[in-house]
Task: inverse folding
């Protein structure tokens, strides 16, 4: 067994199972997808630690981007209840790791990122892995991707201040959107479900994950 394969086993056993991730499909997918391929070379030895990993530094006003640490990501997917027949929108896919995992769980995945270089890297890495059921799109995260809608599941790969109506509009009836709502230690992983056209919400667990750009509340007008 390679060092990375051994690290994947340890990640599943010591980070996921201990955080009550019990879904066999998620455990199998994250135990199989080579996470080290999706981070910069200098971070490959750290690919399986229980920390968020910087995949692109802040530059020219654009915020830094991170790969979410394994446990909250796995718990979000478990809360979403992804079925093998589902169509999934992965919002903020970064270099494509999250989409690679989702590809093992769902029928069809649209991986969306607003950063041109990250989207291009996701295309390359997902192609190399043979993830034929994933399409990568570049565009504003908060706008989603109407071309592939409706989606059974939408996953937001970072914390947000607000979930825009544009994303709820892209949910199928009975669809679920999972996101960490709020910033810092007060944030909550939340499952939004569309029923008869209305969207309800329930808190799933507390989580502290990096921010996803584009989901800030509009500034209030001040006289």
Result:
């Amino acid at each position: 067994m390679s060092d990375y394969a051994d690290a994947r086993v340890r990640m599943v056993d010591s980070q996921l199972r201990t955080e009550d991730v019990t879904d066999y499909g998620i455990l199998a997918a994250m135990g199989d997808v080579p996470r080290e391929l999706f981070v910069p070379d200098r971070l490959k030895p750290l690919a399986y630690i229980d920390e968020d990993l910087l995949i692109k530094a802040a530059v020219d006003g654009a915020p830094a981007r991170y790969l979410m640490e394994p446990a909250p990501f796995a718990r979000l997917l478990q809360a979403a209840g992804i079925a093998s027949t589902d169509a999934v929108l992965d919002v903020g896919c970064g270099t494509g790791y999250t989409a690679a995992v989702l590809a093992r769980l769902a029928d069809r995945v649209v991986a969306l990122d607003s950063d041109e270089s990250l989207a291009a890297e996701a295309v390359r890495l997902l192609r190399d892995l043979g993830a034929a059921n994933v399409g990568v799109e570049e565009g504003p995260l908060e706008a989603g991707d109407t071309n592939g809608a409706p989606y059974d599941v939408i996953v937001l790969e970072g914390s947000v201040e607000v979930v825009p109506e544009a994303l709820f509009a892209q949910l199928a009836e009975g669809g679920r959107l999972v996101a960490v709502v709020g910033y810092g230690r007060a944030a909550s992983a939340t499952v939004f479900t569309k029923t008869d056209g209305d969207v309800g919400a329930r808190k799933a667990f507390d989580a502290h994950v990096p921010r996803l750009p584009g989901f800030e509340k509009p500034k209030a007008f001040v006289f």
About this structure: The two ends are 65 Å apart (CA to CA). Residues 3-16 form the longest helix (14 residues). Strands lie at 53-56, 65-67, 87-91, 108-113, 134-138, 151-160, 171-181, 188-195, 198-206.
